[in-house]
Amino acid sequence: MKKSLSRSLQTRAAAVPFGWPPANLLSQKEAFRKKVVFDLHGPLLDWSTAFCEVAGGMYGVKLDPAQVRHYNMGMDEGFPLSPKEFNAVFPVFARLARGGYGALAIKPGMVEALNQIRAAGISVEIWTWVPGAAEHNHETLKSFGTGIAQSVTRELLVESGLVKDGMRDIRFIKPDAKVGQLAEDHIPLIVEDNPVTAVAAGMAAGLACLLTPEPYNVHLAANGILRLNSHS
Question: How many percent of the chain have pLDDT more than 70?
């Protein structure tokens, strides 16, 4: 199983850089836990397409997530919506009982890939930020006022088979808190799409990051980061 996982990784990697996996990981005095963390939106689920459909319906424009060149699409100068309009859509999307977080499409092959990892004796956790009832929009300072986004996310992940336990295997965490928590928990690897988190993991913490291919991270190359050439 480990050999098959290794061959799969080689076929998905755009170019395995010299010195990967990071030497810092290989020389640690304390053993890392046999665990990998996955970000959710991007690596496992298609968030951008669903969000663009809702945003396009609200403002009567056609939005193509494949054309987004920045992780924060609201700040992308080529994106038809202004930052203010983007921030107006987000709470609407987060409150949807249907067509929002609970209806995101699973990337092809991801359920099988996670099961392969578990079969190799490596535990899997999903760390992601999904707005909760007590959290607020940092631009408007208004509370989201509902926990529906988190509850439907748990349901989706359990029903799809991406996780086995909806409480144990999912952690709702802000993006900028991930790397510190990885280091504290002594987890060596994260699978991400966010270029900022990837660089922080690889360069600031000396950990390893598998970067899933997205238009907003296409040119990213840094220590500790291995960018894949496909999701499947």
Answer: 85
